[in-house]
Amino acid sequence: MLAFSKFNWLTLIVAILVQLPITPVIAGPGTEKTLPNGLKIIVKEDHRSPVVTSQVWYKIGASYEHDGTTGISHALEHMMFKGTKRYGLGQFSQIISDNGGDENAFTGKDYTAYFQNLAADRLAIAFELEADRMRNLTLPAAEFAKEIEVIKEERRLRTDDNPVNLATEHFYANAFLLSPYRTPVIGWMTDLNVLSVDQLRTWYRLWYAPNNATLVVVGDIKPEAVFALAEQHFGPLKAEVITPPQLRIEPQQLGIKRITIKIPAKEPYLIMGYKVPVITSQQDDWEPYALEVLSYILSGGDSSRLQRELVRGSQVAASIDTDYSAFSRLPELFTLDGSPAKGHSIAELEASLRQQIKMLKQIPVTEAELARVRNQLIASKVFQQDSIFYQAMEIGLLESVGLDWHLADKYVDKLSAITAAQIQAVANKYLLDDTLTVAVLEPQTMDSNSIPSNSSGVSNVIR
Amino acid sequence: MLFVNYLIRISILLLLAATSASGIAAVDIQTWKTDNGAKVLFVAAPDLPMLDIRIVFNAGSARETLPGQAYLTNSILAEGAGNWNVEQIAERLESVGSNLNSGSLRDMAWLGLRTLTLQPALDTSLETMATILTSPSFPAASLERLRNLTLVKIHKSEQQPNEIGSKAFYQILYGDHPYAHDPAGTPETITAITRQQLIDYFQQYYVASNAVVAIVGAVDRATAERIAAQVTSGLATGQAAPALSEVTALPSSTVKHINFPTAQSHIYTGQPGVTREDPDFFPLYVGNHVLGGNGLVSILGLEVREARGLSYSVYSYFIPMQRPGPFVMGLQTQNSQAENALDVLMQTLRKFSQTGPTPKQLEEAKRNITGGFPLRIASNGKIIENLSMIGFYNLPLDYLDTFNAKVAAVTVEQVRDAFQRRVKPDNFATVIVGGNSRVMTESH
Q1: Hey, are the CB atoms on A99 and B120 less than 8 Å from each other?
Q2: Between chain A and chain B, how many beta carbons pairs sit less than 8 Å apart?
Q3: Which DSSP category does A20 fall into?
Q4: Which chain A residue has the Cα nearest residue B92?
Q5: In this complex, is the C-beta atom of B305 within 8 Å of any C-beta atom belonging to chain A?
Q6: How far apart are CA B375 and CA B45, in angstroms?
């Protein structure tokens, strides 16, 4: 899922049919507690290093926004660093810095999250500051006037001047008619131009409250001590009446959609997306898991189908990837995107991808492929435990999209249980032309609005 | 009242910080040489059943005769080895859940592996890695495919203002020095490079005397010794790469404008900086943390972004390399503000260089660096990065243990003195990539 953050910063085979044993989970299983004001706290012990990550996840993001105020969640994320009555402008970041911490924040379609990574004995500092800005932000108008300019520069940097990202933004806006997933997280520039600090104040009051947040702590800590500390700092905060916006249901797509994005660029780019379901709290269906395995079969590593067949085999693609996240609040797209290899066209690339989809529908994937995916998943689960930050992110994400965080520990088992017949079934049920959107970046000459070429070259200037 | 309250709270928080700065976990680095002469650095990490290994060669683009030679040599290694073709290599590794990674920069080129320590994952992965380094087959068909992919990659980079700017910046900073050219090569050189040139490059530079092996994972010393011997067994002893030529200081200020159809101008300004063993390294590193190396808390972050709203990202840093790597300050802003933003960058640097940091600023930077030390060694992934760096740049084995003390010892006077002697804004090279703006017309 696309996230924006406050600062800077994817033949013939002799298959080895081995099944790795399921490895033990080293980090603690995790413990949860909910305060009377509704704040849910999830703590996971990991004593390998004397460090901790503290993350506050709010259930608010671009998919909650209305037309005309797009980008407001991300703008508010920026303003969360502009001070409270108690800790004035710049104090938050300065205090975390003085304590040797890393901090940042990021906004997605379904969440806004804030984190600090610190030596484990300094967790109280993070709690003190996060609790304070959960309800006491001052949102000064003069600071907003400057910060919105920073956000517009961020949009120019990430989207307007980046051909692939600009094409992707147009792709999502066209793929969905009503679903809020059509909205870019950073917001449309015309909305950013008219966004007001008063609108942000209302947004802040409505969504920033203990009963709309999840506090996730992973590291060299004891759950009881974390709960006590959280009670002390977050306990006094008042809950808010949370009223999620009326959900706008995406109407059934009635046929293939095609768009062209003509912008200054050098290389063409193709992105295709099918409408697919995700895991919901009401229904723990196998279909989204089958779609995840299907995604691994197509693009999970160098031995995956698209690398083997399109990048190395026919050599139609220079780069190719698939993307799908079963952990989303609303129905998503299963996307395939990439660029053609030298001497090949976008049309050839699209035809090759559609041929691969057709094969998935007609022929069951092999046991060797499934075994590979399973072993990759088992290994990556172990590898992920090397990062306390990643462990906390997985928990925060699940909770924020309305799922049970325990799913993080069941995920590998769920995917491992998927069969070749189930993958074939979801391919036939969901990867349909009538729900497909295809976007093509058609490069236009990059010097169309240029000034004369004598402006290029080295010259001596005294400053 | 609120103000007083706030001051008290701040001092409590700082007291807490000061009292807890001592308890630093040491990293027990063990080292030895393989029989054929490769240096090994090893840290035992028994908690997770996994192993990271990275073999770093002094074989980056600074060694090549044709731009792109080092990158293509590194890229073709996993394309075929022993009796295995590219499909079999990928399948062997991924069927046991392992990840192979490789990369090639200006100084270093490496091959890395992350694997479970369970069987058959461990043996299968290590055998595959050893074969890749012992008998790569440099398949001719793979070279043609990699050639085409690299040409697309270079072409695509020409639509990214940051890549255009960064390439131009290195070219101006380093002139005739091998750091000047881009590691990805040029369309002409990528088209011209032959298979034999890749084999020659491999035979000269991918040798044990020119290698550092970093290992972190759930194995004991004896097993680590066997693993290091296994993966390097096929390497010739060879010779360490000779010292690179000296970098020449910039003689005068230059501004290069690259006209580009973007809403923003990307600005890069700087000069050749420092090596890792430079005696001024710590004063410059800590000083730069105050200036522009600590995000929005840095002076540049405060002046450019917080006070003026000119840019989303603004930074300054030294990139220490075998020979002085760049000192660079940078930002991106809408074209009409480019001149103003560049002025703010330069004035901020000049003022900082003149006065040095305030004692408070220096103290705050030290607190951030030393207090954050546990985070820098908190995972196997971070430890292997540190081992590769320590091994490649021949830093002492106690580098991590003494790091905080060296940071703490830096004084205001040392920072000011080091910046005045070493950073010469009058001779900076500036690169601006973007659309039409006043700063562009003025300089012509």
Answers
A1: no
A2: 314
A3: P
A4: A16
A5: yes
A6: 16
Say whether A456 and B256 touch across the interface (CB within 8 A). Answer: yes
Residue of A86, A100, A160 with shortest CB distance to B372: A100
Phi, psi of B62 (to 5 degrees): -65, -15
Q: Which residue of A has its CA nearest to B93?
A: A303
| Whether A165 contacts chain B with CB within 8 A | no
Helices (H), strands (E): how many in chain A?
15, 13
Q: Where in chain B is the domain with CATH 3.30.830.10?
A: 30-232, 254-442
- Residue-wise pLDDT tens for chain B (444 aa)? 233 333 333 333 333 333 333 344 479 999 999 999 999 999 999 999 999 999 999 999 999 999 999 999 999 999 999 999 999 999 999 999 999 999 999 999 999 999 999 999 999 999 999 999 999 999 999 999 999 999 999 999 999 999 999 999 999 999 999 999 999 999 999 999 999 999 999 999 999 999 999 999 999 999 999 999 999 999 999 999 999 999 999 999 999 999 999 999 999 999 999 999 999 999 999 999 999 999 999 999 999 999 999 999 999 999 999 999 999 999 999 999 999 999 999 999 999 999 999 999 999 999 999 999 999 999 999 999 999 999 999 999 999 999 999 999 999 999 999 999 999 999 999 999 998 644 443 333
Question: Residues B131, B79: contact at Cβ < 8 Å?
Answer: no
Chain B within 8 Å of A125 (Cβ-Cβ)? yes
**For an interface test with B, which of A12, A16, A189 has the most B Cβ atoms less than 10 Å from its Cβ?**
A16
The answer to whether residue A407 neighbours chain B at the CB level (below 8 Å) is no
Contact B148 A8 (CB under 8 A): no
Cis omega (within 30 of 0) on the bond before B279? no
Class at the top of the CATH hierarchy for domain A27-234: alpha beta
**Which residues are within 8 A (CB) of B336 and not within 5 positions of it... i.e. 6 or more apart?**
B437, B438
Q: How many CB atoms lie within 10 A of CB A309?
A: 20
- This complex has an ipTM of 0.91
Tokens standing for A327?
């952990």
> Which CATH number applies to B254-442?
3.30.830.10
Q: Which residue in B80, B86, B94 sits closest to A304, CA to CA?
A: B94
Q: Parallel, antiparallel, or unpaired for β B211-217 and B50-57?
A: antiparallel
For B30-232, the fitting CATH number among 3.30.479.10, 3.40.920.10, 3.30.1330.60, 3.30.830.10 is: 3.30.830.10
Tell me the helix, strand and coil percentages in chain B, rounded to 5: 50, 20, 30
A146/B306 touch (CB, cutoff 8 Å), yes or no: yes
- Distance, in Å, from the CA atom of A275 to the CA atom of A297, rounded to the nearest integer, reads 19
* Listed residue (B325, B192, B188) closest to B270, CA to CA: B325
On whether any CB of chain B is under 8 Å from the CB of A428, the answer is no
Nearest-CA neighbor of B70 among B81, B57, B86? B57
Segments making up each domain of chain A, as ranges: 27-234, 257-444
From chain B, the residues in CB contact with A146 under 8 A are 306-309
Contacts of B428 in chain A (CB under 8 A): 463
If one counts every other C-beta atom within 10 angstroms of the C-beta of residue B188, the result is: 11
**A171, β-bridge pairs:** none
A138 touches B at CB < 8 Å: no
Closest Cα in chain A, distance from residue B240 (Å): 32
A257-444 folds as Cytochrome Bc1 Complex; Chain A, domain 1 (3.30.830)
SS (H, E, C) B69-97: HHHHHHHHHHHEECCEEHHHHHHHHHCCC
* Catalytic residue numbers of A, as ranges: 77
Nearest-neighbour CA in chain B from A91: distance (Å): 9
The answer to whether B102 contacts chain A (CB < 8 Å) is no
3-state helix, strand, coil in chain A (%, to 5): 45, 20, 40
